[in-house]
Amino acid sequence: MTKKIFRSTVAVGLAVLAASLVIIMGALYSYFGKLQEQQLKDELSIAAAAMAEGDGMSYLTRLDSDNYRITWLRADGEVLYDTRADAATMENHAQREEVRQALANGAGESSRYSNTMLTKMLYYAQRLPDGTVLRLSASRVTAGAVLLGMLQPILLVIAAALILSGLLASRVSKRIVEPLNRLDLEHPLENEAYEELSPLLRRLEHQRRQIDQQMSALRRRSEEFEQITASMTEGLVLLDNSGTVLSINPAAQAVLGTDSACVGQPLVAVERDTAVSRALRDAMESGRAETCMEKDGREYQFDMTRIQADGETVGAVLLTFDVTEQTFAQRNRREFTANVSHELKTPLQGIIGSAELLESGMVQPEDMPRFVGHIRSEAQRLVTLINDIIRLSELDEGGALPMEPVELLTLCRDTAAGLSAAAEKRHVTVSVTGEEVTVPGVRRLLSEVFANLCDNAIKYNVDGGSVAIHVSRKGDNACVTVSDTGIGIPAEHQSRVFERFYRVDKSHSKSSGGTGLGLSIVKHAVAYHHGTVELDSREGKGTTFTVTLPLNQ
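The structure corresponding to this sequence follows.
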């Protein structure tokens, strides 16, 4: 802006100077031209009067002037005398305009330019009483000649004007712009500036307030959006129409293994899996696509939806869901269905087979007790399996069961006493130690928890081994450990022993009569009491289960 004011000021100064020079020179040229013409007329009148009173030729020869040229003509235009040339050699002047006017009217005048157009000749003629014509002429420089003659001083004046106007323009422009540069646009109404700027400043203040309100609203919405997306368990990624990441919440960052620095990068650079790229391309084309992938042992589902505005695609939304539990549940459901079918069919086939042999009379009388005993044991096994399935179904449904204070040390002693026959059969000693601790719970479920743990400790123990049950209090929790000196559980199986129908050694489990649901019942029953169950086992050295139950529900 300073440069514009500077250039404008200098241009105005030069324009004013040029106009002034033109006007002044024009006025002076016109004034002195008229003065010269009048002087020329006066001198012609004097010369004509002098010639009328005396001998004209002798008068003319006595005149000597470098500024004027005098010519004396007869009425027919023949030159009688000329102060600058020989009259005999001069052409006839009868057709000259000033001569014709003088012969006709008594006086005449004309002007003619020289060949170079730099000199203008003024001619004035007057008819004398004897009929002759006296003509007086003088040269007058043109405006162009004057301009050329004054060129040097004019250039000096222009140069001086340029310097002076430049200095003044620089100072003026700075003084004009300085208050503008000091304007505080954050507080327009607090400025002390030109009065002419007041409407602009008021307008700026109004717009600033509007912008502040809009920015505050946008900031609030942005914070709300960030808070909402940050608390989402699902991953959320916003993409533009070229697949570049515009926004990503923490859940999506954890899934994709990145951070907020990925904003502005293409999604294919953040997640290089071809399935994701293909799903994004399909979503942009068809409107929606989904894919699944495994990362770090977890199953994730990627849902992509195209975003359109005014009929044009402006981007896409990517939602990621952790479907590990659902996938695990679906797998367990399939396995549970298959296992239930198998476990129910096995004892039923044994019962049906023995019954068919008895019905056909193919069993000898002395073998009858053995077949009947087989039918009874298989039926008992079937009943046990069905009871376990019913118990798991009750725990899955999560219905309210009657709670009561349960003293764990006594419960564990009763459980050990109930399993004493099985322990004696395996020559396994069972000991119960600790302190009396009472927790609120469902006695039947807690009894099944410790019965299953003790039963497994006896079944999978070595002959002559031992089982130790210890009850203690740890802070706000009751802690019960069941340790054995048995065969232990291999490390690769420990993460799955609580799954339904999962058996580490299927042949041993079949011989021991287990259903494969005991530890699953333990897990669900402890979870029903808001407790935890932990496993610590080393193959060939024994296993320890630790059940922790809160003292207050």
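DSSP finds 16 helices and 17 strands in the chain.
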